[in-house]
Amino acid sequence: MTDLTPENIDSRHDGFALSAVRARARGQARGGVVVIQEIFGVTPHIREMCGVFADAGYEALAPGMFDRIESGFLAEPNPEGFARGLAAVNASPWNQVAGDLQAAIDALPKPCFVTGFCWGGTAAWIAAARCAGLSGASCFYGRLIAEHLDQRPRVPVMLHYGARDANIPEENRAKVAAAVPEAPLYIYDAGHGFCRRGGHDYDEAATALALARTLDGFVRWGEQEEQR
Known about the structure:
The protein is α/β, with parallel strands linked by helices. Helices cover 36% and strands 21% of the residues. Strands 1-2-4-3-5-6-7-8 form an eight-stranded mixed sheet, with helices on both faces. Helix 1 (44-55) links the parallel strand 3 (32-36) and strand 4. The longest helix is centred in the last third of the chain and has 24 residues, at 204-227. The radius of gyration is 16 Å and the shape is globular.
């Protein structure tokens, strides 16, 4: 696995020092990727995703989005962990989230992209709408995106959902698709959290395809940025 380096970044929201882990790009960096956590914190899954992007040539940074609640916040994917994670979500207003993500974007080479999983998928959508210095966003199973369609992405986005995700019914996905018809919206034969290795919905084939599509998008969007 790619080595991860701990560091701190100062939020553009309030100057709070967020912990983060950085994965250096393999070879010369072709850009940067902010990797946004699920509700469980910067878990082994999120660290693994940083490694995936670093191996593909991007410098990856995963900020600890719930550090204000608890330094190094981590929760298990069980009922108690879900409750802790949801409480952290409710204590993290979107203005604060956007400011934290702006600090992560500012700390990475350009072109810079953002991706996130579950709550992080919605946070990636918010970043695409509010943050500067981005060239694209790949949003994985963000249930709350449908509640923030007034936040219009200013950069290209793509969306990934599991067809068997009981948390995100078809009506939710259809609402998002209608709001951004220009954005690729991919449906996989999988459940929720299909990228989280070890989770009960983990699906290796869906993960590989979704990440390949994401990396293809980053290359394409980066080239479009160079042509502007």
